[in-house]
Amino acid sequence: MRELWEGVVNFFATASADVALKILGAAVMLFAGFRLVRFAVRLLRRAMQKGRLDPGVQDFLENAISIALRFTLIISVLVYLGVPAASFVAILTSAGLAIGLALQGSLSNLAGGMMLLFFHPFRSGDYIKTDSAEGVVQSISVMYTTLRTLDGKKVVIPNAMLSNGVITDFTWHDTRRVDVSVTVGLTEDSQAVRTLMEEAARSIPTVLPEPAPAAFLDKMADGVLQFTLRCWARTPEFWDTQLKLTEDVKARLDRAGVALRAPTRDVRQI
């Protein structure tokens, strides 16, 4: 440490006054510049918090702007000390090309992440289905989106796949339609089956009264009648409503003596 200090003292002692003043000026620029960068980043953070931007967008913009400002400051100081600006242009061009070629996939994920964070096709806490997975969104970063499946698995999806694929958001709206289908024999009373299914829907507290539950004969095929009951429930209560409604429909049909039938087909050898 002592030798380093002596070297610095000797440099300033032998250097010309202009060189010494330039170096001192550069040191002052760095010190003041870094403080100004921190101050500017704090102002930016407060502005983004007031604007209620997504936390992922806030972190990304804050880090990106901080790095860009510090990098610009260092280059400005080096140019002030006499380093040719053309050298930096050539280095930055070569480095940018090399980095761009090496990080094509990562840049695609980054662009996809910014699209997701700015346009919000879904949010944290939503239950979504993609081409490759489905689950509850745990987090959305600038590179990856993390899902938690219903059986407790963690699924990490690159944002490039999400921004270019089809996404189904099951929790975007406040209510969801619940469908329950049953198949019975061709000889069963259609009106009686419909009445039993609608009564089952009205008996479930989580089924919304409007739109009113409705059961109808869906189709006749393969030796059976297929009936479908449609009603609505609040999105957080969808799964419980569907399970309870399915169980209640089955119980009411059993008590009424209506037997459920599976589709049947006659296979004849010619």
Note poorly predicted spans: none
CATH class of the largest domain: Mainly Alpha
Distance between the termini: 100 Å
Shape: elongated
SS strand fraction: 15-25%
CATH topology of the largest domain, what is it called? Helix Hairpins
- What topology, given as strand order, has the largest sheet? 4-3-2-1-5
Helix count equals 8
Total number of domains: 3
Write the H/E string, N to C: HHHHHEEEEHEEHEEH
Any idea what the CATH architecture of the largest domain is? Orthogonal Bundle
Number of strands: 8
Mean pLDDT: 82
Question: What does it look like?
Answer:
The protein has helices at residues 2-14, 17-50, 55-80, 85-102, 104-119, 159-164, 190-203, 238-255; strands at 127-129, 134-140, 144-148, 154-158, 168-169, 175-185, 214-221, 224-234. With 270 residues, the protein is of the alpha+beta class. It has three domains: 2-102, Helix Hairpins (Orthogonal Bundle), CATH 1.10.287.1260; 121-169, SH3 type barrels (Roll), CATH 2.30.30.60; 175-255, 2-Layer Sandwich (Alpha-Beta Plaits). The protein has a five-stranded antiparallel beta sheet. A three-stranded antiparallel beta sheet has the order 6-8-7, covered by helices on one side.
